[in-house]
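Protein 1 of 2
SEQ + STRUCT:
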Amino acid sequence: MAGDIRIGALISGAGSNLQAIIRACDSKQIRGRVVFVGSDNPEARGLSEARKQGISTFVVDYQAMLESLRAQSWEPLVPKDFVLEKVLALQNIMPPSSSRAKLVRYFCTRAIAEAALLKEMAAYPFDLLVLAGFMRVLTPYFIDRVNMDASRPRIMNIHPALLPSFPGVDGYGDTYRYGCKVGGCTVHFVDYGEDTGPIIGQKAFEIQAEDTLAVVREKGLKLEWELYPACIALFAEDRLRVVSKTYTLQDGTEFKRKVVEMVW
């Protein structure tokens, strides 16, 4: 990839991973620069930190928007380029047993919020979008408007567990409560499920008998601040490739999975 990459970031809170990414750009570990920081939360502390460093910021207040949609007819607000049946066919967020009414409302209202997010992002051309503590699951509507080439994904996330174990919002807590002896973090590309995308990198740490949940979180965060910039640096160097793999299991069934391979 010629030249420095342009990185967009979405956060919901303090943005400690964002700060690690900015430091890595400043030190030239990452051949890139952060061009915007967006949030679903107007109170996110990471926004003020970004502004102090001269980075453009914006907010799409998901909570206020979704609450507003509960009190009014949301159907006229659905984006004109939203195709419900396509999104339903692609999504792996909601279980198939969900009622159609629930699926329709969920994905239509999320598309309204995501369209507002995409409109704000359109002012800042970017090469990679990083989720740095962004606490919203992205739907196929949003993902397909960022991933212009399905073979070259450009939305990256960091998760506080060793995926595929413990997806969801509390990876370190789930790891700790399960009694695991090893914890860790995972950087992956975002796909149509929750924390199911192709894995780029992982780091692990031992959990000692005397460790509290707070200690587990602290150990994990320190590794996150190392791992996320390292994975972004690989993207900036154009060293990541997503390939489809097929494995034949002992019973003859085939298991298919997209994996990340590194170019050396």
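Protein 2 of 2
SEQ + STRUCT:
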Amino acid sequence: MSGKIVWKGALDIFKHYPLFGSGVETFAYSYYQFRPAEHNLTSEWDYLYNKAHNEFLNYLATTGIVGFGTYSIIIITFITIILRKHRTNLLLIALLASYISYLVQNFFSFSVVMIALFFYLFPAMAFVTTDSVRPFSVSRFPFLSLIYRRNIYTKAVQVIILITIFFILFSPYKFSLRRLWLADTHFALGSRASEAGNPGRAYNELTDAVSLNKGEPYYKSELGYAAAASALALQSDDDASISAELKDEAIQITGEVLQKSPNNTSFWRTAIRTYFELYGIDPSFINKTIEAVDKTITLAPTDAKLYYNKAVILGEADQNGKAIRALEKAIELKPNYRDAYFALALFQFDTKDTAKAVGNMNKVLQLVPNDPEALEKLNEWGK
């Protein structure tokens, strides 16, 4: 069911960006803006969808008519050649059948790296089998012919190739694969430390990751959050000077990331977390946090969880009326949202609207029978 909903969103992206699409590998960000509200009713409602779960619609949404047309031409050309010229060749018919099976699989799913190779391997195997591929001849290029015939030149070219490969793999410069691998390793360690509630370790690892790969905004976004979390932890330990430095770093890094990627929903979500951490140090950041939530909602208008998070933050600011409206919007988008009903009941009870509070707490029990938290609250309220 969720697959068809995602397909609908992919078509809406295409309608909005018909010529070139939203951009290669941007589905994870563009989908949120066109995400159908009924997605909230699926079991995967809060998952990050980075593909359309249909390779053809994915090309259509992210590369538009131009990209999808090119992709289609490759498919049609290969199938046409086999059917017109080699329909009696059993090996080629088998390859064609495998190719079509691959395309059918792609219609209901998407390609990962290993599977995507078959899109090119099947046609390549067919062309080699039919001797359609001609060996490259250096005789047509005098310069290459000279190098090929002189052994010393051939050896020199081989040495240059080996040095280049070694340089790309192991050089200390930013484009080396070793450097990128180390950056990813530090990032993974930092992410684990952050999830484990160790902001200091997370900050150190993510700092190393950013220093190794300065051009990766995802690293910087998470580093900004780690800096904010570390600042809050040190503030609690009465180490105000270092905490202030980390706070300024978190603000600077987060601002840079959002300036360079102003429409990236994931970065705005991280910014919400970052500013909320800073709110623990400086209460004025509650307004910055709410602004970040509102911006994220404009990029993902049907995401019920954003309205729920906004309500929680508004509650911290003692803006219960606005929090109630945010929760009502969350429930409108996701009528089976247990957490939203529970929070709404708490806010309504705090605002002396006891009847509605009890009604929504009973709604929690309808969604989750014998919910222990709901039963506890109703007992506290004498209901």
